[in-house]
Amino acid sequence: MVEMVFPEQTSHYGSLYGGNALAAMGKAAFIAATRHCRKAVVMASSQRVDFDNQIQKGEVVELIPRVIKVGRSSMTVEVQLCAENLQSGERRPCGHGTFIMVAVDAQHRPTAVLPSAA
Question: HotDog ACOT-type domain: from which residue to which, for each copy (predicted)?
Answer without folding.
Answer: 1-107
